[in-house]
Amino acid sequence: MTGEQDYRGLAKSFDSVAAEYDRARPSYPDELFDELERLAGRSLKGARVLDVGAGTGISTRLLAARGADVVAVEPSPGMAARLHAVSPEIPLVKGTGDELPFHDRSADLITYAQAFHWTVAERSVPEAIRVLRPGGALATWWNVRDGGVGWVRAMGERLSAALPGPYRWYGRLNEVTDQLLPFGLRTRTAVLRWERRITVEGVITDLTSHSYIAALAPEEREPLLAVEREALLAEFPDGWVTESYLLDLTVAITPGGDA
User: Is 220 a residue whose pLDDT tops 80?
Assistant: First the structure.
C-alpha cells in the first residue's frame, strides 16, 4: 500500500462486503499448513497463534482445525461481526498488526493471510517481534491468481485500465522478504500451486469483495462487474471456472529458537 491515509480508507470498504468475502474468497489447501509447520519448525497443534487481519475467519478456522490455540485479530467491525456469526467459538480481539493488543512474548506464531499489505512493515514487524516468544515465527501468505493463465491476464489488463487508482496483485515473495530484511529475521519461503472450481457468479462475488472494487461508487462498480461477467461467460459458457492459484508463503523466525 502507498499512503497510510489511502490504505486506511480502502480497508474500511470491507465492512460493506463481509458476506461476499466469506462466501467467495478462496480458502487454502492442507499443504499450506504442512509447509507452514515445516518452515516454522514446529507443529501447529497447541501453538499459541494470533491470526492478524483475520477477516471473516477463513484462515483462522483452518488453523484451529489443525489444533492451534488461535485468536483472531481484526479491526473491521463488519468483518469481525461476520467472523463471530460464523465461528462464535473463536476468540476475537479488535486490533491491527501495527499495534498488537498483546503482551510481550505471548505468542508462538503470528499469521497474516491475505493481510500483511494492510500493515506498515516498519510498525508491524517490530510489533510481531515484541509479541513473539524466542524462536517464534511471523508468517504471511497470499493466494495469487496465476497470471500465466490467459483469462486471468486479460482480466488484470481490463481492471488496470478501468480502475481509477493503481491495480495490482499483492504479496509476491520478493516484496515481503525485502520488507523483513531490515529486521534481521531468518526468512524462509515456499510457493504452492493449487486450484478450485467456482461458478462465474462466484468469481464476480469474489471481485466484489476486493477493496479496489468495494470502494467504488455503485455507478462505477456495476458496469465494471458487468464487463467482467460478460467476458467470463464468453470464456466459460457452461458457467464454471477453474481458478489456478500460486500460494506464496513467507515464514520469518525470531532469534532464540532451534528452528
Answer: yes
